[in-house]
Amino acid sequence: MFKKLVLRQKIMNLKDDVGNSINKFQNKTEDYLNKFKNKFDAKDIISILDSLNDLKVLVIGECILDEYVFCDVMERAKKEPILVFKHSYTELYAGGVLAIANHAANFADNVSLITSASKDEKTMNFLRGKLNSKILLNIFPDMHNTVLIKRRYVYSYKNTKVFEVYSHSNYEISNTTEKEIIAYLKDNMDHFDVVIVGDFGHGLITSGIRETILSKRKFLAINAQTNSGNLGYNYITKYKNFDYTTLTEEELRLPLQDSKSGVGDLAKTLAGLINCKKICTTLGTRGIIYYEDKIHESPVFSRYVVDTVGAGDAILAITAMLAYKKVDPEIIPFVGNCVGALAIRIMGNKEPINPIDLNRFITNLLK
Questions:
Q1: Pairing between β-strand 110-115 and β-strand 56-61 as defined by DSSP bridges
Q2: Other CB atoms within 10 Å distance of the CB of residue 101
Q3: HSE of 291 in the Cβ direction (CA atoms, 13 Å)?
Q4: b/e burial code for range 108-130 (CB count within 10 A of at least 16 → b)
Q5: Spatial distance between the Cα atoms of 252 and 281, rounded to a whole number of angstroms
Q6: Are 133 and 119 in contact (CB under 8 A)?
C-alpha cells in the first residue's frame, strides 16, 4: 500500500513538473509577443518578406541528398542482441545547398546555385524534379567529388531515427573543378545582391574558393556546419570579414573553446574575431539569440516536432535576405523562429518553406 502511495505521488509530481514547464513556456512566449506587437504589425513583417522577391541571390556549397529509409520493428534477432527492422518505404530529399536554394527561391525570383554533382541522366532528372524551376543550376562535375547521400533509418511508427549512414565523408574537388568555379565566381558574383555559402565541410569549398568569395565585397551570408563528417575541421573562424552568419550553439562554442560563457557574450567575441557584424545563433527549444550591435532574443513559437533536419538551412536562407535588407534587428530572430517552427513540422527537406504558410503563421502569432 505504501509503495502505491509513493508511486502515485511521484506521478502527481511529474504531472506538476510538466504542467509548470508548459505554463512557463507559454508565459514567456506571450510576454515576448505582447512586447513585439507593440512595435511591429503582421502586415509590416509580411510586406518586408514580399519585398525579397526582387533580390538576386547566389547559393554555393555541397550537393547533399537526404535519404530516409522508413522501417518497422520486427523483433530481436534470435542469435544476436540486435533489433531487426522490416523495410517499409524510402524517400529521397534534396538537402545541403539544394535545400537552401529552394527556400530562397520561394521568396526571391532570381536564384542561382553553384554545386558539384554528376551530370548523368538520373542525377539531372532528380535535381530538375526537386529544385524550384526558378533556380538557375550551375553544376561543375568532378570525378573526385560524388554526391553525398546521408541515409537515415527511421522507425516509422514514431518517426524516430535509429541510425545514420554517410555514403562518404569528404572528397575535395579537383584543381580543375576548383579553377572553373573560381572563374565563374570572378565573372558573376558582382551580378548578385546576396551570396549565401552553405559550407557543409565535405570538400567543395576549398581555400581558393573561400578566398575568392571573401575577396568580392558582396553581402555574404555564411554557415560553416559542424556535423559527424567534419567535427573539429569546419569552424566559422575559417571565414573573416563578411556580413552575416547563422550558427547552432555548438558551432558557436567549439571554435571559441568555451563551454560556459553566455551565448550573447560569445556572439560578441566571435563578431570581433571574424569581423562579422550580424550573428544569429539557434538554440533549439530555447529559441534564437541574435547579435547586431546588441543582443536580441526570441523564444520558440512551437514545440511540435516532426524532424529538426533542415531547419537551420531554412533559417539561413530567409534571414540572410532579411539581413541584407537591413531590417530592424528584432525582426531577424522573430522571423527565424517562425521559419523554424514551420521547418520542424516537415520531414527532413521534403518541402521548402511556403511563403503563404509563413505569412499565415506570423498573422496568427501577432493577432
A1: parallel
A2: 33
A3: 22
A4: bebbbbbbbbbeeeebeebbeeb
A5: 7
A6: no
Could you read off the pLDDT of 253-278 as tens digits, one per residue? 999 999 999 999 999 999 999 999 99
Q: Which phi and psi (to 5°) does residue 150 adopt?
A: -100, 105
DSSP state of 349: T
CA–CA–CA angle 192, 220, 166 (5° rounding): 105
pLDDT of residue 21 exceeding 90, the answer is: no
Least confident of 42-46, 199-203, 245-249: 199-203
40-365 to CATH, choices 3.20.20.70, 2.60.40.1080, 3.40.1190.20, 3.40.440.10: 3.40.1190.20
Q: What is the pLDDT of residues 114-160, one digit of tens each?
A: 999 888 888 888 998 999 999 999 999 887 667 889 999 999 988 99
The pLDDT-based confidence of 23 (bands split at 50, 70, 90) is: low
Residue written as grid cell 529544385? 131
pLDDT at 26 over 60: yes
Round to whole Å and give the CA distance between 116 and 104: 19
The percentage of the chain sitting over the pLDDT mark of 90, rounded to a whole number, equals 77
Non-local CB neighbours of 282 within 8 Å, separated by 6+ positions: 246, 247, 248, 249, 288, 311, 312, 315, 336, 340
pLDDT at 4 over 70: no
The torsion angles phi and psi of 335, rounded to 5 degrees, stand at -65, -40
**41-48: long-range contacts, CB 8 A cutoff, minimum separation 24:** 41/366, 42/362, 42/363, 42/365, 42/366, 42/367, 45/331, 45/334, 45/335, 45/362, 45/366, 46/359, 46/362, 46/363, 48/322, 48/325, 48/327, 48/331
C-alpha cell at 356: 503563404
Residues in CB range of 36: below 8 A, 6 or more apart: 330, 334, 366
Question: How far apart are alpha carbons 198 and 214 in whole angstroms?
Answer: 14
Identify the CA nearest to 239 among candidates 218, 257, 214, 269: 214
Q: If you average pLDDT over every residue of the chain, what do you get?
A: 91
Please classify residue 355 by burial: count the beta carbons closer than 10 Å to its beta carbon, then call 0-12 exposed, 13-18 middle and 19+ buried. Answer: middle
Q: pTM of the full predicted structure?
A: 0.91
Of 304, 300, 320, the C-alpha closest to 100 is 320
